[in-house]
């Protein structure tokens, strides 16, 4: 099953999916660009649905303004399945002292949000989102990933990773898979487009994890010209069945419906047709439909 904000869903019912995005997001590093407007979120999801989108995975973790209580209503209003996350981001995204308060009970928080509900809502998370550091895993990252692994082993929930500038994915697999015995098919490596090293991507693919590439991001647009080249190298090597694609809209300015774009719908109005032309309709169907249905299933 896949756990959405409206309950459990059969994987074959997920449909065309934005595998990494944000409807609500509040970070001290992005002051003034918070995603916290419900009407804007509805407009963005509606635009995605109009382009053929059927599911969105929100990677916003604990303490960053997830607005979990609003997600079921948005899902019902738009007809788009939504998946919420538990987990913890890098410490610099939180106000001073916030991380220290939750630190001693981190694995318990993850477990409770996966099995009971997020905050005071009955919405249960469908994945665990954590973060690595730049080319290394510092003490914060290692502790959080150990808590994520504990919650995974208790529930079976997938673990999705923010890689700082796309780096340290190999170190993440060394820890989560080799040391903490999380199955590689339960690990989703995010932001790999931000480190467009084809050889490194092939090494990661051989280890069995999911490889997630973000659509155009205003903060990382220098990687956009490398996206199809990165996908091509993996598809040609036989790893088209391990690829995921998401928009990663993290600021109000980046929304398509109410900002300057490109927004979530860009995945389907622009990138999907290009992928069909370059790699064929079957590969596009794998990236946008079949692969997410497997990656986010428990």
UniProtKB/TrEMBL annotation:
Any idea which residues bear N6-carboxylysine here? Answer: 129
Is the keyword Hydrolase in the record? yes
- Alphabetic keyword roster: Hydrolase, Metal-binding
Q: Name one Pfam family in it.
A: PTE
Establish whether keyword Metal-binding is in the entry.
yes
Family that this chain belongs to = Belongs to the metallo-dependent hydrolases superfamily. Phosphotriesterase family.
Supply the PANTHER family for this chain: PHOSPHOTRIESTERASE-RELATED, PHOSPHOTRIESTERASE-RELATED PROTEIN
Q: What is this protein called?
A: Phosphotriesterase
Q: Native species of this protein?
A: Kribbella yunnanensis
